[in-house]
Design brief:
By secondary structure, the protein is α/β, with parallel strands linked by helices. It folds into three domains: 52 residues, no CATH class; 139 residues, Response regulator (Rossmann fold), CATH 3.40.50.2300; 133 residues, Rossmann fold (3-Layer(aba) Sandwich). It is 43% helix and 16% strand. The protein has 14 helices and twelve strands. It has a six-stranded parallel sheet, covered by helices on one side. Strands 7-6-8-9-10-12 form a six-stranded mixed sheet, sandwiched between helices. α13 links the parallel β8 and β9. The N and C termini lie far apart (71 Å).
């Protein structure tokens, strides 16, 4: 049987270089890859490899990749549900750890996402990333992520839209409009918003909020719109305190938070300011959570259960495994529902 050691001797390069060339690692030149593949084919290695691949039709391994530390909090519950759903189907969920980009990657000597996914035999990858679609194809630092999405392994993006792979997206626009409709119906006219700074990735952006408010002829002052730079409860707490202290006399009667971590910080801030919920101020939030109640606090929320998001993502993944349809940019929307916890 022909081995990579035989190919290495025939090509005059190291065994590791042969392995990387056959696995299409990006740090091997295209000329070297072509040379190694031609030699391997002539020596009969490709036929042997194809036979082995046929025997191993399934590895029963699916990966997940979180490209940004700030995304961990918001996707933790979804990943837990993904693992449960995959275990029921006999699959393992394995982390595909993030790597350095650009020069950092070269110094570390680590292969990109796609070669490692191939090496582990991953049949698909769930992607949790706040990268914007327009940056994916224009910034060299995102080359590894771009290679993964454009590669042959099915990728399902959870919570963020990419045109080149399947996506599972919570219906954030419906959530914002539904909450504002309910808040307005309760008589609130001074509504403030605490959202993530990169919120245009998931649809909760200033333009969407203002569009929803225009349906009711409402205009909010700029200082009622607070952006949190990092998705942390601490930053949300600071922004909420600043919002409440600046508008002590004509402050908001309701604050809408764009996710659970921001909600956590916001409630802490409201309590520090000595305000009661909902007697002094109404709290609304868009939540990815199974439970209706939030720490025993009455919150008006639009809730997306993680089990629904995970179920939709697993369906998208397995349909992508059955063929090349995952390249058509299919999108699955999770609707969620209004949940009145008062």
């Amino acid at each position: 049987m022909v081995t990579q050691k035989d190919i290495s001797a025939a090509c005059g390069i190291s065994i590791s270089a042969v392995s990387k060339a056959l696995s299409d690692y990006p740090d091997i030149s295209e000329d070297t890859k072509r040379k190694v593949r031609d030699v391997a084919r002539k020596m009969g290695y490709q036929e042997v490899k194809n036979e082995l691949n046929t025997r191993r039709e399934h590895t029963y391994i699916v990966g997940f990749l979180i490209t940004d530390e700030t995304e961990k909090g918001s996707c933790r519950n979804v990943i837990r549900e993904l693992r449960k759903a995959l275990v029921e189907k006999g699959y393992d969920l394995v982390v595909l750890s993030p790597i350095g980009i650009g020069k950092e990657r070269n110094r570390a000597g680590r292969p990109g996402y796609l070669p490692r996914a191939r090496l582990f035999g991953m049949e698909g990858v769930f992607l949790f990333s706040g990268v914007q679609e327009k940056d994916l194809y224009t910034r060299e630092r995102l080359r590894n992520l771009r290679e993964l999405i454009l590669g042959e392994i099915p990728v399902v993006s959870v919570g963020n839209y990419f045109a080149s792979c399947s996506c599972v997206l919570p219906a954030y626009e419906k959530a914002v409009r539904g909450l504002i409709r309910e808040i307005y119906g309760r008589g609130h006219r001074r509504i403030a918003f605490v959202v993530k700074e990169c919120a245009d990735n998931n649809g909760i952006c200033r333009d969407l909020i203002r569009s929803a408010l225009r349906d009711y002829q409402l205009e909010i002052p700029d200082h009622f719109y607070r952006c949190v730079g990092a998705d942390t409860a601490g930053d949300a707490c600071s922004e909420t305190i600043a919002l409440l202290k600046r508008n002590r006399w004509l402050g908001p009667t309701c604050i809408l938070f764009s996710d659970d971590l921001l909600l956590e910080g916001g409630i802490a801030a409201i309590r520090q300011c000595g305000l009661r919920i909902p007697e002094d101020i109404c709290v609304a939030a868009i939540r990815i959570a199974e439970e209706e109640k939030y720490q025993g606090c009455p919150v008006l929320s639009w809730r997306f259960p993680p089990s629904q998001i995970a179920g939709a993502a697993v369906e998208q993944m397995f349909s992508g495994m059955r063929g090349p349809l995952h390249k058509n940019g299919r999108v699955r929307i999770v609707e969620g529902s209004l949940c009145d916890e008062n």
